[in-house]
Description:
- By secondary structure, this protein is α+β, with helices and mostly antiparallel strands.
- The chain is built from 6 helices and 16 strands.
- It has a single domain, classed as Carbonic Anhydrase II (Roll), CATH 3.10.200.10.
- It is globular, with a radius of gyration of 20 Å.
- 35% of the residues are buried.
Amino acid sequence: MYTISHVVIAWLTFVVLPSVNGFGYSKREQHLWPQKHKLCAGKLQSPVAISTSKAIPLPLPALEMIGYHDFLPTPQILTNNGQTVKLTVSKNATRERLPYIFGATLKQNQHYEMEQLHFHWGIKNNRGAEHVLNGVRYPMEMHIVHRNVAYSNLSQATQHEDGVVVVAVFFHLQDEHNEFFQALASKLAGVQWARTELPVNMSITLMSLIPSNTDVFYTYKGSFTTPPCSEVVTWIVFATPVPISFRQMNTFRVLSNGEETLGDNFRRLQDIGQRKIYIRRLYSAFSNKYNDSRLNLTNLSWFWL
């Protein structure tokens, strides 16, 4: 029998969010997305299949990640919204500035600040990631969403084609725990139920969640992979996956979407169409073929004519 103290403790542990109009990931439900969100039938949709042999190699500038080595400000908010698990920094957190990125193919003097990160994973180990790399679909993919600081909030940023950068990270399975990932994995039980959120104080850095080798990445123009599928995203997809143990992977598979197990929350592949996918390569002989006048990122073409 529960006492009043038990109820108070439970209320302090997590907050039940109000029900929201969601969307589903079944084949039929995804087919219906464009009926409510016309952009989901657009020509610049994500995710896509990436092939190293078909990507265009360029000696692109590095992706500069400022604040990625610093602990995220606390408290953070861990949320199960029924479609994914999301980590954000509380608006009440005392901070200087959130981590931000620039460089790569991004326009000069444009900075993109972290808004949130979230995950897509499978019920089984042979699926889960949204992008497919060289025919491989990894069991999980993380998206770190960044907003162009020229726009005051994410909603405003989604109205502009240069509004958002999403950094995508694949995960591959191994027997041993990824100790850097354990702080987050250990908190997931606190948001088991759909539409709940939990304040957490994790000593965690973004750098600990991404691959140690960030030299090679793919980049293309696309969209959000969830409705309303706004076509405002520059994607940066790291080639090297991050390890995660089978047990850590299973901590995602005990979560609920409100009716059943939360999982297989990945969008089906979209047609790449006339879009180009670039890969950053740093071979010295290859790089020497280019100079500043030839590799003009200002006029970089993202589409085949």
